[in-house]
Structure of 3-oxoacyl-[acyl-carrier-protein] reductase FabG:
Amino acid sequence: MKRFENKNVIVTGAAAGVGQQIALQYATEGAFVVLVDLRKPEETMELIKNANGKSDFVICDISDENQIKAMAVAVGEKCNGKVDVLVNNAGFNGKANLIKDMNLSDWNYTLSVNLTGTMLVSREIIPFLINNKSGAIVNVASNVGKRGLPYRSDYVCSKWALLGLTQTLALELVDEKIRVNAVCPGPIDGDRVEELVKMHAEVEGQSVEQMHKAWEDVPMKRFIDPQEVTNVILFLSSNDSSAMTGQALNITGGMLMN
Ligand SMILES: NC(=O)c1ccc[n+]([C@@H]2O[C@H](COP(=O)([O-])OP(=O)(O)OC[C@H]3O[C@@H](n4cnc5c(N)ncnc54)[C@H](O)[C@@H]3O)[C@@H](O)[C@H]2O)c1
């Protein structure tokens, strides 16, 4: 029997990037996966179909409470009221601004997706996890959930706060047998990190090559593969991590060690 056979898994931000890889892996390991994203996750659904997996989707902007409520109704119908795993992966980078130049609406928008959106999605999906009598939530934070980074205060603070949300939810749900953990990845190979490197190079007055090298300068001297993040998320939502809750695991090639 496959590891996630007969399990209902919800992945936000599943149309692209790491979320796509996470969703595909759950489906490959037997789960029925509901893909939640701003846009129709056509490519992800095609990949899952080609892997003989099962998926469905709900279009939802997680910065909007009403859309989240409607998404949860749709998820309840698709999953017969029972969810085993929620992966809160959707996230927004924010722009590059020092705090002295920070625009309040930019700050608020980043927090509304990364922090408030994650809280609201959790709030709406938790009843389906409770119905199931056991389950797991995995929040995708970041290495900057544990350190500062100039020009990115909105993103950084949203990810630090996500770890507070993770620990609090872990305590609130412990008696329901729902475990809540987070991952803190370093820069992940893909389109998004290339855009970020370019954005930082521009504001910090460096070449893209210099900035790339600086970001790769961790003990392992490389970025993280999306599959390496996916593997840890599946571990945190499987019985292999049955005594772990409220944890924030670093996946940073040695950049962070506590
Ligand atoms: N890429 C990295 O280097 C890196 C490093 C550390 C942490 N992370 C975190 O990993 C997660 C995934 O990042 P990624 O690199 O795959 O990003 P990405 O930009 O490639 O993909 C993000 C997905 O989320 C969706 N999304 C964005 N805003 C949304 C919203 N308001 N409502 C619903 N869906 C929304 C997008 O449509 C997209 O499909 C994010 O939480 C990010 O902060 C990424």
Summary: The longest strand covers residues 178-185. The chain has a mean pLDDT of 98.
